[in-house]
Specification:
- There is one protein chain.
- By secondary structure, the chain is an alpha/beta fold.
- It contains four helices and nine strands, in the order E-H-E-E-H-E-H-E-E-E-E-E-H.
- The strands form two sheets. Strands 1, 2, 3, 4, 5 and 9 form a six-stranded parallel β-sheet that branches. The chain has a three-stranded antiparallel β-sheet with strand order 6-8-7, with no helix packed on it.
- The two termini are about 15 Å apart.
- The model has no long low-confidence stretch (mean pLDDT about 95).
- The structure holds flavin mononucleotide.
- The site of flavin mononucleotide has 23 residues, from helix 1.
- Flavin mononucleotide binds next to helix 1.
């Protein structure tokens, strides 16, 4: 079973989380809103997907506050984590999908193996905390400017993540 944990302010991240769930399969996944989920739920999963938007110029949405501080109490070693994030590259070209980078730093610090890195090709931005060694450390989605390629990006990324999870 794969646990999908998302935090969404306006609902866009939630609908992407639901799409990812449909593609992987409802029976193989469970969906959790981090605003109303105890962090120790992570103990039930070895394969985890985290999804977040970026708010306030480079920050996590408020819905993540309790969960992110709770992560300090959870051992993620031996777990595989894939990350996706939403952002707006035209309005926020210097903090584009920074929250993916914030989650990456947090979960790798807790011992998780992060999978599902994604090329920067096809996006236009100047700076992102989510770029490490020339690639995004998770899937970047831009519903404001590139919603036409979202479904294709999700399908390709999910295939890659399932393979890296060792499920195929
Ligand atoms: C006040 C505000 C600040 C934002 N800051 C950023 C940002 O720093 N970087 C970024 O990539 N996107 C930023 N965005 C864009 C959101 O991440 C994007 O609209 C996202 O789809 C919202 O997802 P949600 O509906 O799940 O909250 C911001 C949006 C708003 C309204």
């Amino acid at each position: 079973m794969i646990g999908i944990f998302y935090g969404s302010t306006m609902g866009a991240t939630e609908s992407i989380a639901e799409k990812i769930r449909e593609i992987i399969g409802r029976g193989k996944t469970k969906l959790y809103d981090v605003a109303s989920t105890p962090v120790d739920t992570l103990n039930d999963y070895n394969l985890i997907i985290f999804g977040t938007a970026t708010w306030g110029e480079g920050g996590l949405p408020d819905d993540w506050n309790a969960f992110i501080s709770g992560l300090d109490q959870v051992d993620l070693s031996g777990k595989k984590v894939a990350l996706f994030g939403l952002g707006d590259q035209d309005l926020f070209p210097d903090t584009f999908v920074d929250s993916i980078g914030i989650l990456y730093e947090k979960v790798s610090g807790r011992g998780a193996t992060v999978v599902g890195s994604w090329p920067v090709r096809g996006y236009r931005f100047d700076e992102s905390r989510a770029v490490k060694n020339g690639a995004f450390v998770g899937l970047a989605i831009d519903q404001e400017n590139q919603s036409d390629v979202t479904d294709e990006r999700i399908r390709k990324w999910v295939d890659q993540v399932i393979a890296e999870f060792g499920r195929k």
